[in-house]
Amino acid sequence: MILVDGKKTSQDIKNEIAARVAEIKTEGGKTPHLAAILVGNDGASQTYVGAKVKACHEIGFESTLVRLEETVSEEELLKVVDDINQNPDIDGLIVQLPLPRHISVEKVTNKIKPEKDVDGFTPANVGRMTLNWPAYVAATPYGIVELLKRYEIETSGKHCVVIGRSHIVGSPMSILMARNGNPGNATVTLTHSRTQNLKEITKTADILIVAIGKPEFVTADMVKEGAVVIDVGIHRVEDSSKKSGFRLIGDVKFDEVSQKASAITPVPGGVGPMTIASLLYNTLQAAEKKIYQ
Ligand code: GUN
């Protein structure tokens, strides 16, 4: 069984990006610059944004964090997005989700200039990805694609089953696995909460991508012998034996599924660390104008 190590792979990618940034600086070019907007005080969002800003500094990017009150109006937020859109020094912009309920995610997302949309959330980038044009691809699916590529996991002609149809993970993942490319060329089944006989379907998967958001949902009886299993879930469970009082588990029951899988991502240390590496890579591409020429 191959343990697909996202921690190591993400570090490799960060090293590659850092080397390119050093080169750009030596050539007298502009330092890549990521801006993040964080609205309110959600604990998880603060942690994620903090990790993104820290990663920028580790690899030599500039970063700007704009923090806004929970009570900020939609109009004010749209103005901040527009200011960043117009700022030539900033290459990439992310607006951390979720947003407070009085703000329309659609309006805010649609305001982000596609050329700076390094989260790959705008209709322009989702459409471009779907057409198999150059696009910013959302961080989690892009991270999974990169893991499959770097571990040389064959996807062509394989049956890939995706569990979960979210806009951020399941839906783009199904498109990327089906597209004519590498990784890609898989026969894809996208399953969700209304799917009947889920277990019968997952048992036929050569590649199983689980993004359902339910702790240890996938058990060994749902998995074919030799399958590749990618676990996108991340959940905290109480564990008094840990100093922190908790441990992290995924959407897959790792202990039993890893006995059957030919390759599997652990939690933590699998897909999670890849997301930040993808965001940094997208920002480098934005700075170098590789997607929109
Ligand atoms: N919230 C959860 N995941 C993400 C992400 O990838 N980007 C942004 N902007 N917000 C998120």
TrEMBL record:
EC number(s) stated in the UniProt entry for this protein: 1.5.1.5, 3.5.4.9
Keyword Oxidoreductase tagged: yes
UniProt keywords, alphabetically: Amino-acid biosynthesis, Histidine biosynthesis, Hydrolase, Methionine biosynthesis, Multifunctional enzyme, NADP, One-carbon metabolism, Oxidoreductase, Purine biosynthesis
Gene3D superfamilies in UniProt: Leucine Dehydrogenase, chain A, domain 1, NAD(P)-binding Rossmann-like Domain
Keyword Kinase among record annotations: no
Gene Ontology MF: a single term: methenyltetrahydrofolate cyclohydrolase activity
Residue ranges of domain Tetrahydrofolate dehydrogenase/cyclohydrolase catalytic in the record: 4-119
Pathway: One-carbon metabolism; tetrahydrofolate interconversion
Enzymatic reactions: (6R)-5,10-methylene-5,6,7,8-tetrahydrofolate + NADP(+) = (6R)-5,10-methenyltetrahydrofolate + NADPH; (6R)-5,10-methenyltetrahydrofolate + H2O = (6R)-10-formyltetrahydrofolate + H(+)
Highest taxon of source: Bacteria
Entry's Gene Ontology BP terms: L-histidine biosynthetic process; methionine biosynthetic process; purine nucleotide biosynthetic process; tetrahydrofolate interconversion
GO cellular component term, pick one: cytosol
Domain named Tetrahydrofolate dehydrogenase/cyclohydrolase NAD(P)-binding: residues: 139-290
Binding site for NADP(+): G164, R165, S166, I234
Function description: Catalyzes the oxidation of 5,10-methylenetetrahydrofolate to 5,10-methenyltetrahydrofolate and then the hydrolysis of 5,10-methenyltetrahydrofolate to 10-formyltetrahydrofolate.
Subunit and interaction comment: Homodimer.
UniProt family annotation: Belongs to the tetrahydrofolate dehydrogenase/cyclohydrolase family.
Stated name of the protein: Bifunctional protein FolD
Organism of this sequence: Algoriphagus hitonicola
Source lineage: Bacteria, Pseudomonadati, Bacteroidota, Cytophagia, Cytophagales
Gene that specifies this protein: folD
